[in-house]
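Review this today:
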Amino acid sequence: MLEAFKELMKDGRFKFAFIVICVLAFMSILSFFSPYDPLRWNVVPRDRPPSWPHIFGTTSQGQDLFWQSTFAIRNSLTIALIASGISRVIAIIVGLVSGYKGGTVDTVLMSINDSFVFMPLLPILILIASVIRENLNMVTLGIILSLFGWAWDARVIRSQILSLREREFTYTAILSGTKTFNLVVKEYFPFIIPIIFATLINNMIWATGMEVTLAILGLSNTEIPTIGTMIHWAVNYQSILLGYWWWILTPVIISVFLFVALYLLSTSLSEYLDPRTRIQRIGKAKE
């Protein structure tokens, strides 16, 4: 494990992404030690530019932007992890069953899958969020996003399983009496792990983007500090027109770093975990 991490750290993309994620994770942990209640207003002087002790400045609501950012990062990552985790389970089950079974099972599952692929997600999410806005907490939002974020990835996993099913080792395993579960876990999973990791991180990007979109539109629980609700309040209080640049820039810069870091993490891990690139690395090491 340590050797794998050292090898990954040689990749500049992974190193940058790892450092950014560590910084954001550290900030989210700091939220547990915040001296301020994130839901209370007027706890610090209002509209102060970055200076000590308010290093990110303060808002027109009388909140410290640094400590508010720690809660926002923690809550946004929580929503993204809930959404991507549940959707990965759905995508893996649908992709594996559909790709391996084929026939009628494949037709039925892919019909359902394709209906989610072509579904206009944003208008539907806006409708759902507007209906249950009062009860829309982090867990609920994460679950809702997970129910709409699995279809593309299930089709990608299915395509990989269809390819693996036609290879010689599959026929050999079946003829030798290998059970379906053992075949899928021992033979197929090493090939789809890169896809799972890549789609997991990509889905986190999508979930975070959707949370930000809904929050800016005022369709999420704006009392809960997230990256999206920070932007919502900054726009709502006209921070740009009033010259409170630190208020709007703080969540925007955090979101940009988060999106870029997750994307670079996804691409670097996918290349490292891909069995084909692994074989190439082994060949170069032997040379």
